[in-house]
Amino acid sequence: MSSEHLDSDRVISILDRVFAGHNKPMGLHEPYFPGKEWDYVKECLDTRWVSSAGRFIERLEVDLADYLGVKRVVAVVNGTAGLHIALKLSGVETNDEVIVPSATFVATANAVAHCGAIPHFADIEPKTLGIDAARLGEYLRDATDIRDGKCFNRNTGRCIKAVVPMHTFGHPVDIEGVLEVCQRYNLIMIEDAAESIGSMYKGKQTGTFGKAGIFSFNGNKTITTGGGGAIATNDEKFANFARHITTTAKMPHPWEYRHDMVAYNYRMPNINAALGVAQLEQLDTFLKLKRSLAERYAKEFKNVSGLIFFTEPESTKSNYWLNTLVLNNEQSNMRDVLIKRGMESGYSMRPLWLPLHTLKMYQTCPRMDLNVAENLSMRLINIPSSVFLGKGHS
Amino acid sequence: MSSEHLDSDRVISILDRVFAGHNKPMGLHEPYFPGKEWDYVKECLDTRWVSSAGRFIERLEVDLADYLGVKRVVAVVNGTAGLHIALKLSGVETNDEVIVPSATFVATANAVAHCGAIPHFADIEPKTLGIDAARLGEYLRDATDIRDGKCFNRNTGRCIKAVVPMHTFGHPVDIEGVLEVCQRYNLIMIEDAAESIGSMYKGKQTGTFGKAGIFSFNGNKTITTGGGGAIATNDEKFANFARHITTTAKMPHPWEYRHDMVAYNYRMPNINAALGVAQLEQLDTFLKLKRSLAERYAKEFKNVSGLIFFTEPESTKSNYWLNTLVLNNEQSNMRDVLIKRGMESGYSMRPLWLPLHTLKMYQTCPRMDLNVAENLSMRLINIPSSVFLGKGHS
């Protein structure tokens, strides 16, 4: 059908119209510092509180907990470290399995491997781009046994300890569906909300549904601390333990250096937290700008043949971290053509990550059928999404 | 002998004289930003290059490699991460053993544990506060077998892969002695130079003698990046591998996300590197100030009964990161008395770390006789050592 043909010139001309007057080349998601970033960072330098203690770390933790509506937040050095610790504190040990989507950034699986455990890959569903809870439930029914209240992979004999749903590009996964599966199979849920700060599922913040939720403040995220992350939880004991094990497990004492377990140096420095406090103050403004850009994209791409612009799943409010075009099935051979044309024209574009089960270190890991992840990986394209690109569209 | 009595009033009165006019309370080692710290950090914010790429990361790596006289430096998120990666790339695997001093910060042993390996504790010598090479050599002669070119612990049957000498408080260890033992027993040497940036052993920078040297830029170090560290090496392949595995092992490609091994998110953010570049520009000035303070301390404490001021070992030039009083044996019961008096008077003081083999998670680890570490842990006291405290003593 010629009417279905994807015209890459048309896509580029839309971007040219949407971003008339903007500088190019344009990154996929660049930082934006219109608030008190410099004031707070300068305060760190002036007071010399730049390192692992200081008022901004504590303030970032309190402010983010307030924003999310959780009891506690522990700031860490990045999202990977946050996931590693959350899984470890959930009892994930050497030779356990942890269910993660195959369609996610590699850090989700790496954090499992850092516990000595094995990623077990779940498929995603087209309407959320996150774990397909219904199909995961069916798969676990056939592939696992419950013994002594624990879930065992019938094939490998290993214990499956946890599930890590990830909110892809900021779009909330079917978190209630995943939580129901976790309850049915006695699995702990750790939410990978690295991409979804500010996104809501039925009016509640992502990252607040499981035992813990992990956020990332990497430079390409909606708000950034340069490098950083956070663990959010309603479990005070979990939070205290996370704080302890991310700060070398030093026992409180005015001078003695006594540490009571093998631990990590995963604390976010105060200078990075200063940036984070200033960014968090503007998160709601940023989210409005991102929504404004997404709405503009939705309007502009509405009648373009061969693709659709991905919009937030029902009952959710996405932060639209990375805006996404979904090519029709028969247009998947156009993916790289369009990405190249975009880059030549000054617009950063990116496909979905290679499904993790195709990477050589994870090829032998257990998995359910992953045909949706495989299919979508050929059809998704992220397009420029920086907060400041949202200005002037309302 | 009453002439040997340690008079804590006298120690405090010396500090009062040395630091007349300084603000109190006084930390043990506080950051100092008299250079281009603001300019460079502000440049990061203005250009929005705050995260995992940017000119300051590269510049810090090049500038530090130049300073040290090594081929390559890889900037990482902190010293612990640097040690972890250096050990991993040296082939340290689950159930191997790695020799570390018992008298070191806990991170040295934690990095071994993060590889799944077991710390094997070595004693230190009084004249360097670092590993006693002669005694380590004798111990290994009796405690190990060499088979197929590998060194095996005769007791545990495990392979000993590496030795991590640490330059305590900046004072160079007998690095040639340790290196000779490593060569004799086919052990890789990774230098823990977290505390010794700028310190020299026979005219050559510490951190440049082994397969790799690790530096820390934590807030309490001679120069700081808030939180950060670096791996220095003369082995290009090792450096390339370190870079790869600390940055999620992503293969170069304009848009594809292909990663070829389980890897880490250990890259130093650019905003932290900006601070580091500015600090490194002043390192020689800082070292002069630190030496000036150490010389003042040496003079003031020369005739104080019951203690000596620790001075750099023969053939070395120490950065005097943390200045150290060594109480006479019979004064060890005065250690905590003096520390408390110091703190009450506004001077941070600190004993040696508890020897790591006494911490509960490392109590069952293999070890040589550790009587020197145990003895010195009761007799050492660090006293205020910040760079800026060196002003006005020359």
Condensed summary:
Chain A has helices at residues 8-18, 37-47, 55-68, 79-89, 107-114, 133-143, 175-184, 236-245, 270-281, 283-300, 335-344, 371-377, and strands spanning 72-76, 97-101, 118-122, 144-147, 150-153, 159-163, 188-192, 200-201, 204-205, 212-216, 229-233, 307-309, 316-317, 323-327, 350-351, 380-383.
CATH topology of the largest domain in chain A: Aspartate Aminotransferase, domain 2
Can you name the CATH architecture of the largest domain in chain A? 3-Layer(aba) Sandwich
> Helicity level of chain A, as a percent range?
25-40%
Count of the domains of chain A: 2
Instruction: Give the topology string of chain A: H per helix, E per strand.
Output: HHHEHEHEHEEEHEEEEEHHHEEEHEHE
State the end-to-end CA separation of chain A. Answer: 35 Å
Total strand segments of chain A: 16
> Largest beta sheet of chain A, briefly?
9 strands, mixed
Computed CA radius of gyration of chain A, to the nearest angstrom: 21 Å
Please mark out the parts of chain A with pLDDT under 50 across 5 or more consecutive residues, or reply none: none
Which structural class best describes the helix and strand composition of chain A? alpha+beta
Average pLDDT confidence of chain A is 96
Question: Count of helices of chain A?
Answer: 12
Find the biggest chain interface.
A-B, 65 and 65 residues
Global morphology of chain A: globular
Query: Please, what is the CATH homologous superfamily of the largest domain in chain A?
Result: Type I PLP-dependent aspartate aminotransferase-like (Major domain)
Query: CATH class of the largest domain in chain A, please?
Result: Alpha Beta
